[in-house]
Predict the 3D structure of the following.
Amino acid sequence: MSKDAPSENAENTTGATGKTGPEPSRRFCVAPMMDWTTPQYRYLARLLSRHTLLYTEMVTTGALIHGDTERFLHHNPAEYPLALQLGGSDAGELAHCARLAEQFGFSEVNLNVGCPSDRVQNNMIGACLMGHPDKVAEAVSAMIAATSLPVTVKHRIGINGRESWDDLCEFVDKVSAAGCRTFIVHARIAVLEGLSPKENRDVPPLKYDWVYRLKQKYPHLEIIINGGIKTFEECHEHLEHTDGVMLGREAYHNPWLLAGVDSEFFGDEAPTASRHDALRAMYPFIESELERGVFLSHISRHLLGLFHGIPGGRQFRRYISENAHKSGAGLEVIQTALEKVREPAQPVLTEATASA
Ligand SMILES: Cc1cc2nc3c(=O)[nH]c(=O)nc-3n(C[C@H](O)[C@H](O)[C@H](O)COP(=O)(O)O)c2cc1C
């Protein structure tokens, strides 16, 4: 592991012993995103920020219980602090999976009450659960009893037909009475019929003021705001009213943003001085992933945003897109792509904030 690789002894590391570390800070989080926040993306994210709380993609209880548990929970201790997001509604199954989360060393277990996809609705997973606050409360209570990890909930401000302020408060009242003290709130409703999951991330209007009101009404709860946040300036504004911010798409498409997080929000030094250094620090990891049979394209697609918006970035992306899928493609594809981007003579610590 290179000297720049994320530390396996990071402060919140829980390790294979299952011993839990301190509660992770949720001041700045990267959102759970299916197919995007894979172990490979998370490794890159951790090279750029030591303090950001990372979330896995959602894993359903059915997949964990009946599928290849090891594969679904696979991660690198270097990624800590790392929260496992679960999809499900059966209290017993969720409790079982919360126990697994602890055994596998995760820092937090999170329940998805925000995903609007039809596929998950049919199994009572995701945003449809906002219509069943008692069921969520029962599940959360069982999860809390099963693990010493923090149990958190990520939800919407409502769903169509249950979108009043009182509906939202009923949800938070019941779930907090069951013991949940951290609510990650995507500040728009989900429309369960007629909008695709993608449209459900853009079409219903954002109502940040509702999330601020939640914090005012429930000052003892930790309220994290999510949805449409792109810049550090916006983050600071939200942090005046809430306890933390969660960024999804911007953190994925422009990962270099994360390189400014430790200094901007945690008073710590940035772990890496340049995009080039960060990518080179990925090399040992890329090689070990290739050795365990991961295709280069499954790693490289998460690197495409690293040179977002800077000269040579397009050539970098094009070279990877044209070559990473070829049979036998290895680390040399990434090395050659990197040569397409001129290395700055000086460290570029301020770039993350400048482009943010
Ligand atoms: C590709 C993609 C996959 C997503 N998968 C999940 C998921 O597995 N679980 C979840 O709670 N939210 C998921 N989301 C929603 C995000 O976590 C987040 O709530 C949403 O993108 C709004 O934040 P943003 O505007 O910062 O992207 C996904 C979003 C995207 C773009």
Remarks:
- The longest helix spans residues 275-291.
- The longest strand covers residues 53-60.
